[in-house]
Automatic annotation (TrEMBL):
GO terms for molecular function: biliverdin reductase [NAD(P)H] activity; riboflavin reductase (NADPH) activity. It comes from Papilio xuthus (Asian swallowtail butterfly). It comes from the Eukaryota. InterPro entries: NAD(P)-bd_dom (IPR016040), NAD(P)-bd_dom_sf (IPR036291), Polyketide_Oxido-like (IPR051606). Residues 8-190 form the NAD(P)-binding domain. This is Flavin reductase. The lineage of its organism: Eukaryota, Metazoa, Ecdysozoa, Arthropoda, Hexapoda.
């Protein structure tokens, strides 16, 4: 795997994923709506691709020529009803099929471990769309990795606990740096393919 595209590359976790991918030596295509939101230290290290995940043609063009896809779509703290994330992911998956790209890691939410009626009310709409994203992944024959992180924090990178197909989150929080790095690393780790992965920061000694 040499070249990857990161969707949602200017969000809190997305920027960390871009930085991790650059450090790992990937050629990185950063898909974003507003190039101004990409930090100055990354602008000359990545290929900037301006687009919208709800526009299938721009998504297809962004996927073309890549070997893997990282999806870190978010709503910028908006908790209103939406289908933008799942519709965007469906466009990404369709583009991957069209361009024969087979590997994708996607950031979802640890609320997917909950029964729907146990999700805190204010997060239910967003969780419903994350659930639609997860169902879309499972319907493919791709090398998908569904990441269910707990609360994403601003804490610096640290040791991480990673679990495959757990019944619940292994902890309460994950550093945005650790999460971004994992989303990138998972692309080249076949043990994660076709699985739910949850992770958290290891307790401080």
């Amino acid at each position: 795997m040499k070249k990857i595209v990161i969707f949602g590359s200017t969000g809190m976790t997305g920027l960390c994923a871009v930085e991790a991918a650059v450090k790992k030596g990937f050629q990185v295509r950063a898909f974003l709506r507003d190039p101004q939101k990409l930090t100055d230290n990354l602008k000359d290290k990545v290929e900037i691709f301006k687009g919208d995940v709800l526009e299938p043609d721009s998504v297809t063009n962004a996927v073309e020529g890549t070997d893997g896809v990282v999806v870190v779509l978010g709503t910028r703290s908006c908790l209103d009803p939406t289908s933008d994330l799942s519709e965007g992911l469906k466009n990404i998956l369709e583009a991957m099929r069209a361009k024969n790209v087979k590997t994708i890691s996607t950031c979802l939410s640890a609320f997917l471990f909950y029964e729907p009626d146990k999700v805190p009310p204010k997060f239910q709409h967003l969780t419903n769309d994350h659930r639609r994203m997860y169902e879309a992944l499972k319907e493919t024959s791709m090398n998908w990795v569904a990441v269910f992180p707990p609360h994403i924090s601003e804490e610096p990178s640290c040791e991480t606990i990673i679990q495959i197909n757990p019944q619940k989150s292994p902890g309460r929080a994950i550093s945005k740096w650790n999460l971004g790095e994992f989303l990138v690393n998972a692309l080249t780790e076949p043990k994660y393919y076709g699985n739910v992965v949850s992770l958290c920061d290891a307790p401080k000694q």
